[in-house]
Amino acid sequence: MARPSWSRPRVISEDGLNDWKKLGVGGFGTVYKATHDEWGPVAIKVINDARAGSMSDQDLKREAEMMQRAVSLHVTKVLGAFRGRLPDNIEHVGMVMELMERGSLTSLLSNVPPWPLVFRLAHQVALGMNHLHSLTPEALIHKDLKPDNVLLDSDLNVKISDFGLAKYADNQTVMHLKGGRTIFYAPPEYGGADGASATPAFDVYSYAMLVFVILNAGHKPESFDKNEGERPSLKVINGLQAPGVKELVKLMVRCWDQTPEQRPSFAECARETARLYEMHKSGIKDAVRRMKGKLDGVSSARNSQGAASSSEYSGYRVTFHGGNSSTPQAPRYSSRASSGRVKYGELTVLGHSDSDTKSHFTLYQRPEANGVKQSTVHKGNQGTNKCGQNSISFTVTPVSTVIVEFEDDRNTDMFQIGRATDSQIDFRVTDTVSTSVSDISRYACRIICQRRPPYKAHIYAAGFNSDKNIFLGKDAVKWESHGQMDGLTTNGVLVMQPLPGFTPGPWMEISVFGNAFTPRDSPTSRECGKRVGSKQELVDGTLIDLCGVTLLWRTTERPIEDLDALLKNLPRHSQ
User: Fold this and answer.
1) 72 and 126, same structural domain?
2) Interhelix angle for 245-255 vs 266-278, to 10°?
3) Given 59, 78, 99, which residue is the final one in a domain?
4) Which residues 6+ apart lie within 8 Å of 270 measured at CB?
5) Does the active-site annotation cover 144?
6) How many whole angstroms separate alpha carbon 507 and alpha carbon 505?
7) pLDDT by residue (tens digit) across 82-102?
8) Helix or strand or coil: residue 293?
9) Mean pLDDT over residues 510-517, rounded?
10) What are phi and psi of 287, to 5 degrees?
11) pTM for the complete prediction?
12) 492 belongs to a structural domain
């Protein structure tokens, strides 16, 4: 996109803007995509308020100038103000901005993003906000920092957007709980009866809440009384394991301090997050590639199902100043979806599930293969896998480890299932009965699908964690046979392939390399059962038990007449 050729913003009309397309609707207006004769694709933020028509060109220029002077590497670029007629032939006003094709940060938060991306997001938001707070002669306070207003470029870099609520800090505008502001992200001083003056500490508190939502996989906590000093529970976040995550949580807690003066500046936040991001920087290219592949897959799936995608663009919000049956219906299936994408199969949770998790997951062929296959085996006391490479580690003795490395496999797609909220998990599952401690593994199992006909799917115990590793420690059941290591996970993965007519077949326990064994008497048993098969294929009607939840695998529309008959011999009933 060419840069504007003027130093001060101008008011742009509909002339020179073509190919209008609505992207989404926000709390204050509508966002359109259009093609400008000079700049190419742009975003047009149009205010819907009737009072907007009374704004003079001078008012529009002033608004655009305030936004334009805030431009930086991590702040959305404003190209000018807009006054003109849309395809509805009604005059509107708004802002012309650079287009962020990837939408907002919200689109990344179905799970915790890969750790390199988490730390880069936290760092780049801090950089962008520090820039706004450092503007001279007057600092700019955002006052509506949240995931919807953090946009992403084509490589998932941060661009802070939406300054419609911003006032220059020196104006000391008094705020009250009204208008379009998002209360969850507002600090406690914002809710007082007399309101509060706009200070940089306002945005720092919002930053803490934004970091919390990133680490909590997009979930906001239940209600809490911020005015009484309460904050969201850290129970889930404290269980996250990654270098630097504890330090990031400590910074987050400092940023939501009840006393505004005790909160750090964004300059300090930027310095600290730069240090933390440095720990993960080497893995950022791979993290971005994986996340973009997942986003493209989700987007294609939504489009093939006719789902609306406008919410992905909610970050362009326009603001100016002022089934619970245990026997589910067989899902519709074909080897190719209507969009032409290959559909490998579908997983359905049997029984009740956490309302915050999905009960159904369709495995589509990925835009790019992400499967892996075994490559090299390292033995000895120095066995360490190469940086960024998938591996399975077997602790043989306290001083001896066997590491099996994997390499990319362009002929397969991999899907991971488990309780973790990390981005490595494609289908997050929770216990189908109330329990204080879940027995479902964070990385329970993985399914490998062939990208070529007949598109077979095979299941393996355990999934790769955020470090791309599966670790079987000293207490895990493991063995070596004919030069090949293998083992079972602590809680185990059981499968049952139905016999003809969907009558119950025998239950089998699956190893980390996909071999099948008769089930152990209990998860604490140190001996594996008798081997009964290898490379266990998922066939239509297969049941998968993950010690807390049971999944049904379907690849056809044939009805299962008596699902209860398949379930009654479940070795450990998880409904």
Assistant:
1) no
2) 170
3) 99
4) 123, 126, 127, 130
5) yes
6) 7
7) 888 876 677 788 888 888 878
8) helix
9) 94
10) -65, -45
11) 0.54
12) yes
Unique residue bearing structure tokens 């520090």 = 130
Tell me the three state secondary structure of residue 463: coil
C-beta neighbour count of 59 within 10 angstroms? 15
447 and 513 fall within a common domain: yes
Domain of 146, in residue numbers: 105-287
- Cβ neighbors of 70 (< 8 A, separation 6 or more) are 131, 132, 135, 140, 163
The structure tokens 């933020």 sit at 45
d(CA 6, CA 19): 25
The tokens describing 146, both together, are 């949240």
Q: Which residues pair with 96 in a beta bridge?
A: 44, 80
Question: Taking residues 210-216, what's their average pLDDT?
Answer: 94
Residue with tokens 């850290």: 234
What are the residues whose beta carbons fall under 8 Å from the beta carbon of 341, sequence distance 6 or more? 300, 301, 304, 364, 365
54 plus 74 within the same structural domain: yes
The dihedral over CA atoms of 186, 253, 311, 150, expressed in degrees to the nearest 10, equals 90
Tokens of 135: 């503007």
Residue 213 and residue 149 share a domain = yes
Report how far residue 406's alpha carbon sits from residue 199's, in angstroms, rounded to the nearest whole number. 52
Contact (Cβ atoms closer than 8 angstroms) between residue 506 and residue 498: no
Q: Among the options 49, 144, 203, 540, which is catalytic?
A: 144
Residues 116 and 83 reside in one and the same domain: no
According to the per-residue pLDDT averaged within each range, which of 212-221, 405-414, 553-562 is highest?
405-414
At 271, is the pLDDT very low, low, confident or very high (cuts 50, 70, 90)?
A: very high
The count of structural domains within the chain is 3
